[in-house]
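Example 3.2
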Amino acid sequence: MSEFYSDKDVQREVTELQGKSATAARLFDIRRIIGGLFVVYGVIVTIAGFTASDADIDKAEGVNINLWTGLGMLALGVFFLVWLWLRPAAPPPPDVVPADERRE
């Protein structure tokens, strides 16, 4: 037994799938992943910089390299997340249909 769909049903289903696709695209935006990882690792390295011993700082010729690297990573991560917030990924236009899916 085969089911028949009306054009209205097909259009509604396509609209729902486009909405889910746009949500998935925003969720897995590479800027979110990169920004999140840099923020997490930046916090870890910054904490390591705050807890560095004098011997560790002497090894780096007097520079608290973990602190500066951690702060740099935090700044880069925040940059990516702010960029994502200011310029979110735009969903594809609803009238665009890939060439292989067009009816002829």
